[in-house]
Task: structure prediction
Amino acid sequence: MNQWTGISAKAENELHNAVMQRLFKEKAYLQQGYTMQQMAAELNTNTRYLRLVFQRRLQKSFNSIINELRIKDAQALLRYQRNKDTNMEKIAVHVGYSNRQTFYAAFRKLTGLTPNEYRDHFSRANTSEQ
Result:
């Protein structure tokens, strides 16, 4: 056990694997209002250890990872022609945001574009390929 962190290397590895399972297989981040406290409770650990795994293993904060995963899912939805008429609020809710404003701010911060600009770009690209 590391005297500074209070968690053994084995326990840290196990927690990292559990975090990866929750995020990438179960897509827990799609839940609106999903918090580190909620994940800690689900994984039977505390937020201190969870924060440690995010910092050391993923090298990002919990919120950064959650937002990145949500925006990647939103980008995938916006690229598909079948979603061209889906309003942004539906997409925002589908990827875990509780309102359009938060979704737009996170999307623009990570991509440099608004969701509409992103969808328009792919819509034009798909039209020019046909």
About this structure: The CA atoms of residues 56 and 76 lie 28 Å apart.
